[in-house]
Amino acid sequence: MSFKQYPILFHPILKDRIWGGTKLKSILGKDIDSNEVGESWEISGVSSDISVVANGVYAGLNLNDLIQKFPDEILGEAIIARFDKQFPLLFKFLDAKDDLSIQLHPNDELAQKRHGSFGKTEMWYVMQADEGARVVVDFKDGVSQEDYLKHLESKTLPSILKEIPVKKGDVFFIETGTVHAIGGGVLLAEIQQTSDITYRVYDWDRLDAQGNSRELHIDLALEAINYDKKNVEITYNKVVNTDNHILECPFFNVNYIPLSGMYTKVKDKSRFYLYVCTEGEGEIIIGEEKYELHCGQTIFIPAVVSEVILKGEATVLEIFVS
User: Fold this and answer.
1) For the purposes of burial, counting CB atoms within 10 Å of the CB of 36, is it exposed (0-12), middle (13-18) or buried (19 or more)?
2) Which of 14, 116, 135, 262 holds its CA 20 to 30 A away from the CA of 20?
3) Where Zn(2+) is bound, by residue (predicted)?
4) Which 8-state DSSP code applies to residue 66?
5) Quick one: pLDDT at residue 158?
6) CB 91 within 8 A of CB 274
């Protein structure tokens, strides 16, 4: 069976969260009824939430089925060599109306030992932020495990964490073991490893609609926390119609494309690409086929595609795995 080359879209997997809001609908145009949707999983290979194709001849197939039928065409030989037929990324949009819990994620070794999972390294790209919005990332200088446990017990953990004001276009790299929280008023795009393992250590003493507090993972987190100072804020160039480098790490690479006119990507056929439109609109072209590009859209480009053209007035994230 020959493979049909085209930009693949997936149905978003929407997640109600205690901290969720309405920006995924009002800003990104998602078809949502609830006022508490916190996450839109745009493409996922997490076993409990496998993305389903929304367009074209493969509509209705889930991501794993597509990979099984066309592994080389979808993932590419470089990705298969590293991950076999397991999709290595999870990409999502998050709308934090209220603060997320203070949390962290285990590294690959610990996640595999405990959960049979990848670890969870992630990157945030801020798409919109209300006035005064901030994120919480990492400890202040000189914090030890003893300090952490003392403040955790006294419910003063936020006092030893770094709060960073945010605005549109800010980027943060969250390595495994980094204590962090997305603050209320922030809409962002999150690129991460395929993992849903989170250790929640403090949840602002809030209760859900039934009057219950959410589960904490204090003991699990102890071995996973990294107290070393990290460079979490990333600066990058914004040259028009160019793939400006944001981040390269062992798990994913991210470029920033300020599109005003046309951008052409000539790629090898050994790996897939994702294009995420964070603002504006335009079109994406493969061969003779043209497809709409708009804010809030995540487009999967199969490995077998050799050239992609973007046209329009937009900002786009280009994501791939080395």
Assistant:
1) middle
2) 116
3) 105, 122, 180
4) H
5) 96
6) yes
Q: What residue ranges do the domains of the chain occupy?
A: 13-234, 244-320
Helix (H) or strand (E) segment spanning residue 313: strand 307-320
Q: What is the mean pLDDT of the chain?
A: 96
Location of structure tokens 């914090």: 143
Nearest of 28, 1, 2 to residue 187 by alpha carbon: 28
60 and 9 Cβ atoms separated by less than 8 Å: no
Task: Give all strands of the β-sheet with 199-202 in edge-to-edge order.
Answer: 161-165, 134-139, 180-182, 102-104, 199-202
Angle ∠(279,283,289) on CA atoms, nearest 5: 155
The question of whether 200 is a catalytic residue gets the answer yes
**Which residues lie closer than 8 Å to 242 by C-beta, 6 or more apart?**
257, 258, 263
- Residue 11 annotated as binding site: no
Q: Do domains 13-234 and 244-320 have the same CATH topology?
A: yes
CB contact set of 113 (below 8 Å; sequence gap of 6+): none
Residue 215: Cβ within 10 Å count: 7
- 1 pLDDT more than 80: no
CATH value of 244-320 in 2.40.260.10, 2.60.120.10, 1.10.10.10, 3.30.930.10 = 2.60.120.10
Residue 30, both tokens: 């998602």
Tell whether 151 is in a known binding site: no
Catalytic residue among 82, 134, 200, 206: 200
* pTM for the model: 0.96
